[in-house]
Amino acid sequence: MSTTAEPGPLIGRGRSADVYDVGGGRVLRRYRYPVDVQPEALIMRHLAQAGYPVPEVFAADGTDMVMERLDGSDMLAAIVARPWTVRRHARTLADLHDRLHQVAAPPDWKPGRGDRVVHLDLHPANVMLTSRGPVVIDWVNAQSGTPGADVAMAYLIMTTSDLDLIPLWLRPAALRLRHVLVAEFLRCVRDEPWPHMAVAAEARLADVNTRPSEVPRIHRAVERAKRAQPANSAS
Q1: How far apart are alpha carbons 69 and 92 in whole angstroms?
Q2: What are the chain's domains?
């Protein structure tokens, strides 16, 4: 399936992959670096059978995956368009984490430090708000692990990522919205991120998609976590 030719109109471009409309209510996501999408397809099918909201997978080969084309927009775009909905979306994000962490990982599938399915990239840009409800996308980093580690990674991504998807003139307001989003998310999500922050930061710093401008923020987030953990543990 993987070729250098473009299979249809380019409709999306992330840090690591491009998305093309291939017709018939389907899209092709093609990674720009060597990766086997078979484990990602496997876990998406496993989650669909468990009733968790993921796109339907039609084919997977090499760096290419053909999936259901979702309607609607992503949660990040919805927050930018309607800032007064930020707390509601934060609660939805927390619920998606909690629901995911109830799903046991398949035996012998990408073993990590626990036995639950963890996404490790579950933030607003990877939640599509569709006519059938919120749907979680981009499962390439998923593995078996512990729920708190997934929450820690989401916290790091939400608090340290560049705001390049936000128009420049909106970024001061976006920083305030991000603070509200993260605070409400942490208030509602079941699992504590703080004991897992150092490991999550190590993984984030090793990620080829992490930008140099984000590195100092990641280190500062770990320092904040060290200060937050005792108070959180006592509560």
Answers
A1: 21
A2: 10-68 (3.30.200.20), 73-234 (3.90.1200)
Which residue stretches of 17-129 are H helix? Answer: 38-49, 75-81, 86-100
Residue 100: closest CA among 90, 110, 92, 111: 92
User: H or E element: which one contains 118?
Assistant: strand 116-118
* C-beta neighbour count of 74 within 10 angstroms: 22
Measured CA to CA in angstroms, residue 79 lies from 17, 90, 125, 163, 183 at distances of 23, 10, 10, 13, 15
Task: Look up residue 104 and give its DSSP letter.
Answer: B
DSSP letters spanning 45-60: HHHHHTT---PPEEEE
What are the pLDDT digits (tens) for 157-195? Answer: 999 988 876 677 777 888 899 999 999 999 999 999 999
Is the sign of the CA dihedral 53, 85, 82, 181 positive or negative?
negative
Output 171 or 40, whichever has higher pLDDT: 40
CB atoms within 10 A of CB 177: 18
160 burial level (CB within 10 Å; 0-12, 13-18, 19+): buried
Quickly count: other Cβ atoms within 10 Å of residue 43's Cβ.
25
